[in-house]
Design a protein that fits this description.
Blueprint lengths: L11 H14 L5 H11 L1 H5 L6 H14 L5 H12 L2 H8 L4 H19 L22 E7 L12 H6 L8 E13 L3 E9 L3 E2 L15 E3 L7 H6 L3 E8 L2 H8 L1 H9 L13 H6 L3 E2 L6 E6 L7
Antiparallel strand pairs: 1-2, 1-6, 2-3, 2-4, 3-5, 5-7, 6-8
Length: 307
Amino acid sequence: MGTWGTGLYSSDSSKDFETTIKSIIKLPFKDEEIYNIISEEFKDTISNENDEDHYIFWLVLSDQFNKYGIANNLIFQKAIEIIDLGKDLNRNKELGMDNISLKARDKVLKKLKESLSSKNPSKTRKLLKKPDELIFKQGDIIKFPVLKDGTALNPYFSNKLITKYPNLNETKEFSYAIIISSNLVFDYIASYWVIVYAESFDSGNNISVENLISEEKWLLKRAGVCSKSHFNKMKLEIIGNCQFSPAINEFTEEEKRFLKYAAVNDISLANSLKVNQREKMLKENYMPFKLSRYIKKIEIEYKKSSA
């Protein structure tokens, strides 16, 4: 459950639930289908009342549905029952919440109940008007700048912040990543799966990615999303494309859940663009990836591409 407090969204879990539910709610599907997708995503938490996040999940779900105009009386009644029977308060007491905090929590829950009992949802949900544009194709070779700590440029830094602290984007090294899967999750949300070369090179080095294909320094990283804005802020370059053998599709098809997880949780591809930490990354279950096993052909353009 991580950190928690008296507010509905004070715990790590509630914030995670909120992020995922918001991502799914914006899909242009019927209310029932939205609920079915969310139910599948959190089926273990939903089905297990002993899960410490079970009650907070229902409270967050009801609040989000109510805020975005999805009227689901079964969900609302489930949340109201949790509040009326004191289940959430008892769970928080078991987890060590003191009496003063429990009273504050009770006020939050009563306010939620009042909102759920109202016949006027806060607002209607804003839907995605069209599917995301896929800015990467399967096999795209990405060259990206690397900071001193081995990470890519942070796409969440504002231009104002970078102007004030230019050293935040000071890079003298680069590395490579290759897109092994590019997909529209639920036919709408773009998500990408990458492998990353585990070392970086000095910016003055003209090392060719072709010479790195046979090396066993490629690591299978987590999937992530990447908007055009993030593409530009991370100063990514698409320098070419690999043609993979059919075996790569057999591999990625089995693991499409990773793409979905990244899409619905809005996990940035920046989290996967890390190098110079091979031993640490292996401990974090990043798998070595035998790239040469899947390559049929590689074409390098060596010209800067923009999304």
